[in-house]
Request: fold
Amino acid sequence: MIQITMRKRPKEDSVLTQRKFFKKTARGKVIKVLRERYLRSDVSCGIEQCLICPSGGMRPLSLISLVPHPAYPHGHILVPDTNILLGQMDLVESPLFDAPLVILQTVLDEVRHRSIPLYNRLKNLLRADDKRVFVFYNEYCQDTAVYKNKEEIANDLNDRSIRTAVRWYGKHISSMLGSVRVLPNTYPQVVLLTDDVDNRQKASSEGITAVSVRNYVERSKNAALLSDLLASSSGDASVQPGANHLNAIYSEHMSGAMLTTGVKSGILHQGHFSANQYNYLEGTVKVAAFDTPVLVVGRQNMNRAMQGDIVAVEIFLEPEWRIPTNAVVDQDAALRNDDADQSDGEGDEVLQADEEARIAKDLAEEAKGTRKERSPTGRIVGIVKRNWRTYVCHLDPTSLSSTSLTSTATQAVFAIPTSTLLPRIRIRTRQAPQLLDQKILVTIDRWDITSRYPEGHFVRALGKAGTKEAEQEALLVEYGVAYGAFGKAIQACLPPEGDNWIVPPKGDKLWKGREDLRELLICSIDPPGCQDIDDALHARPLENGNIEAGVHIADVSHFVHAETPMDSEAAAR
Reply:
């Protein structure tokens, strides 16, 4: 008979094994939540050659096939912090970024808390067949779990938890290879990838190898291509509050707390911003307090809002209300002489912004109208929630400083979105001449108060503009239609016969509750070249002179079973 020993946990351990936090309910009530955390000694490291950790489970990491890097000749494993995954997901997802990754539970939970779309992309990355990624549950491992110190804020606790796990991985690999007499100076390195200068300094003082993402990429073998994928906000330089505010084009956004207070008090109004596709200097915000949308005139009053953003708007006094203009102001024509390489906040940019403001003011003066015709007018004072995503664009050929196909210099160029509702995006790339006639994907990273344009980075090329394949993929991306390749887990849900699957003979259990109508002339109504032939019709005369019309629908549930990877993927798509 198996004997079970019950041991009472010492009182002093409760700090480590219990997590207490406060949660606000949908009705605004604050409740205290206490969660028990059970620490384990059998949490796997995910390394295939490890003989220390208990066997079993997936082990996607291997010390034999570690990717070489000039800075780490004996191999390395990367451990990114939360901000790397929040800001550099395009880089991490790239096939060229082939370093083995350890995603810590601390990081995974924080990404889920801060951005559900990025969390879903991270989950897809964990399932990708061409990536070596392992989730290490550091908060449940007794060797890596940490507890909150007095006066320690959540961000510092998470950083310390990440450093503790990185240090443990390094010691774990040393113990693993030391047992087989591998020389210490040939051990693979465990590298903390972080853009937080303070976190890197603390890691260095604790004997942990830490590097910024830009430093890591610039020394990698695919530096030229990977550099284009770096978000423009990455690097070691930190922007000081108030810097260059003398050359500010836009006003600072209010903080989240101020916006919430303003909306609740009725001073501000919240709604979705909609740009005018015929006049880039005009937009509207639909708010609950007015029957007609609030008019926003001029880019300064739009204050860096983009199509679909949830914004907070301040309403002007009624004498300043205007009517929407019928003028057509084309962005490409108005901005064709702009210099993409112009530094933020330089004199020319400020003058150009002032000229834009003058044009917007003239249009507004012409559109005063009668009192009854006027719409409530205001200005945007803050962004409640950004709607930034990946955009389909093409490069503005007039913004290139060099069109030489052999040039590898980094150029600042304008990417013009396919949608006329969006502003130009300034990106920096080494591939500008090669991308001139391509449809490309661009992601926005930031929009500073000293810049007339949002800053972004190149993600990838879809193909030559005008070709069927490039235009089809551009439409799928632009409208958010999932079209990625299916992983091995999903493919495994299909019949093993694949394309050679045939209907089983009569007497098979498949025929239970089914009727064989194959003697009828049944025609598919799906067009030629269609990949999902699942609709068909038949018609036949009956003895009483009527015509029977039959509608046939494919029995998808025979192949897609509940609670399978294919079922989950179908639900997500």
Notes: Residues 370 and 547 are 65 Å apart (CA to CA). The radius of gyration is 29 Å. The mean pLDDT is 84. The chain is about 25% helix and 20% strand.
